[in-house]
Amino acid sequence: MPKEENYFEKMEATRLLVTYLTKSMGVVRKRFETEIASNANISDILRGQQPGNREKFFKLLKEKYDQNIGDVPLWIMPVYRRVFGASSAPIGVIEDAMIDQFYNAARLTGDKLKKFSDQYAGEKGKVYAYARYAMQQNGKRENPILTGVTKIYPYEKGDKFLRSVSEVIHRNKTMQKKPWHYNKLNGFIIPFGDYFFEIGIDKAYQYPFFIGHSQSPNGATSFHGISFRRYPKGRLLAARIFHQLLPNVTSLDNAKESIGYTTLDKFTEMFSMTDANFLENIGNHDGKGPIVSKE
Q: DSSP of 91-142, one letter per residue?
């Protein structure tokens, strides 16, 4: 059998996977060999011997990792892909692994996540109006400020994150004129120390968005953070983002009046933020602050 391209490099990566599997994941090497075949010897297989056992070996090795992917550290994933192919792990497997990494790094428990959910989502989910504000290059805000709505869904037993769904104007179709065309963004939320992070997908453009929120001392009536996402013209934009609770609203359909555009004056009236310094930071850097960008 001819050697495939980068064969020896792949074998070294495979040897690392076997070592991690047996040393850190509790798989007994001899038992693993018996599952392959009665005469299987992993060392021989890695040296290019026992060609009849090679296919079964790689199949079982992948199964072992896929079954325990949530416990595998992220640094192993490039090695996994080198051995099994760039798209070898199902998306769901990779997503679950990433969620587990966030959950473990944040030292979350079901009780901690439930407490966070009670504050920010309540029993039926809470709906927030939000506005994203980014500076223009010269430090002045000329374009209208985009506003939208977000619903945070409550924790259910066994969850490792909270779900969020947002609606905002589809800028390319709307061009700032009614009737609005709405765009939906689906995300997940992980509380992490003094912050909570919202990561998701912009449905219209199929691009990710990332938001870091400060956990608010006001409970969940209002909170603010920094949003990082791709805008319709292709640029990446960092912006201040403010959320404010819409009392007694539990459905996005009942919050449509909060979706649209606003001016700076109306923005400061709509979003009664208690952190005045944070609000002032938006306009006091002549467009050169660390989180500002052209839109």
A: HHHHHHHHHHHHHHHTT--HHHHHHHHHHHTTTT-EEEEEEEE---TTS---
Question: Is residue 138 domain-shared with residue 69, that is, in the same domain?
Answer: no
pTM confidence score: 0.62
Other beta carbons within 10 angstroms of residue 181's beta carbon come to 13
Same domain assignment for residues 119 and 32: no
Count the domains in the chain: 2
pLDDT tens digits, 5-46: 567 788 889 999 999 999 888 899 999 999 999 999 999 998
